[in-house]
Amino acid sequence: MNTQKKILITGANGFIGSFLVEEALNRNYLVYAGIRKNCNTDYLIDNRITFLELDYSSTETLCKSIVHAPHFDHIIHNAGLTKAEKKEDYFTVNFRYTKNLIEALEKEKKTPEQFIYMSSLAAFGPADHTTAGVVKLTSSPAPITAYGKSKLASEQYITHLPNFPYLIIRPTAVYGPREKDLYTLFKLINSHIEPYIGLKNQALTFVYVKDLANAVFDAMATGKSRKAYFVTDGHVYDRGNLGAIIKTTLNKKTFRINIPLGLVRIVAFFNEVANTLSGKTSILNFEKVNELGSLNWQCDNQTLCDETGFVAHYNLENGLIETAAWYKKEKWL
Ligand SMILES: NC(=O)c1ccc[n+]([C@@H]2O[C@H](COP(=O)([O-])OP(=O)(O)OC[C@H]3O[C@@H](n4cnc5c(N)ncnc54)[C@H](OP(=O)(O)O)[C@@H]3O)[C@@H](O)[C@H]2O)c1
Fold first, then answer.
1. How many CB atoms lie within 10 A of CB 223?
2. Distance 10 CA to ligand 1 centre (A)
3. What does the domain layout of the chain look like in residue ranges?
């Protein structure tokens, strides 16, 4: 008899999802990758992976998607929309689809031992408003973007389900190989441009994608449920650290450019108009400006460390060095 635990990881083909799949395989799970029809599966090439196409559009379509699937011991619901044309899209994908999935699991009597929801620090917003200067588990959530609000809506739905065995993971900014947002900064610095937005310094937090994957599985391994954890590498960085490390890693001399926040807002305004007309999503929109303009993204991972034994193996320096090496190997740089 096969005693391997079965795990379904949604959004498995994305940046974080593909690392969750790798970690699940490392930990000897029987891995089911929850994906959408016709998606890119370039990072899911291990032949131990079973693919499961999920149609999240309604509870009924999801019931059909999972009816012949096994009863999963664990589900990591990691699929999520991080950039959207319309604010409503965040709610549809991040909240409505999560609700549809949980309802379908309940209908099919397939609720797992643990349902891990990949939320975000954005659900609580920056620490700007907190008296402690750090977002803690006891802080009141104050998301500043529609994305963060949609994640919070899911969290509130999940935590109000009686006896539902959830674990909520709230990572700060995640970076690493395959990631495309911080990659923009790598490309600029590679072209000798080191941009800074606004004049004020910021307290930034990060977690390397492999550490995040470990944190998720360490939290699952405790067997606990009905818990939430912030995930960060435990350090606080200023924006100069980020630019300086990338610059050193790429061995580039740069022109430092300070772009006033007001100007960025104007550009974001025109981008939003262009997006509405073209139906495309731009990396710079009002949502992003709100996040970029926030001064303090500190969050407290002490409970995660105490309860799961989580230790971050990467700080920003060795994480960015490994990331740059991957970008170069894959000829992204
Ligand atoms: N990256 C970060 O810094 C960060 C920080 C905190 C939390 N998170 C959360 O981590 C999760 C993964 O993010 P990521 O950075 O890995 O993003 P990503 O690379 O864009 O991956 C997102 C995944 O979600 C799936 N997805 C997106 N829209 C969907 C839809 N309408 N229906 C079904 N599936 C959909 C994507 O599938 P397709 O390939 O088919 O589009 C992809 O597999 C998200 O829930 C995100 O909110 C990310």
1. 9
2. 9
3. 6-175+206-234+297-313
Q: Is the CB of 78 under 6 A from ligand 1?
A: yes
Taking residue 173's Cβ as centre, other Cβ atoms within 10 Å add up to: 18
Ligand 1 proximity of 39 Cβ (cutoff 6 Å): yes
Mean pLDDT of the chain: 94
Mean pLDDT of 133-154: 96
- CB of 65 sitting under 6 A from ligand 1: no
Question: Alpha-carbon distance 123 to 212, whole Å?
Answer: 17
Choosing from 8, 21, 36 the residue with most ligand 1 atoms within 8 A of its CB, the one to mutate for a pocket test is 36
Q: Is 212 in the pocket of ligand 1 (CB under 6 A)?
A: no
What CATH number is given for 6-175+206-234+297-313 in this structure?
Answer: 3.40.50.720
Among 37-46, 90-99, 128-137, 150-159, name the one with the lowest average pLDDT: 128-137
Q: What is the pLDDT of residues 152-164, one digit of tens each?
A: 999 999 999 999 9
Atom of ligand 1 nearest to the CA of 151: 47
- Provide the β-strand partners of residue 8: 32, 75
Q: Which is higher by pLDDT, 295 or 35?
A: 35
- What would the pLDDT profile of 235-281 be if each residue is shown by its tens digit? 999 988 999 999 999 999 999 998 888 888 887 777 777 777 776 66
Provide mean pLDDT across the span 115-122.
Answer: 98
Q: Can you tell me which atom of ligand 1 is nearest the CA of 17?
A: 16
Q: 171 in ligand 1 pocket by Cβ < 6 Å?
A: yes
The DSSP line for 71-102 is --SEEEE----SS-SSHHHHIIIIIIHHHHHH
The rounded Å distance from CA 11 to ligand 1 centre is: 6
Tokens for 197, please give them.
């937005």
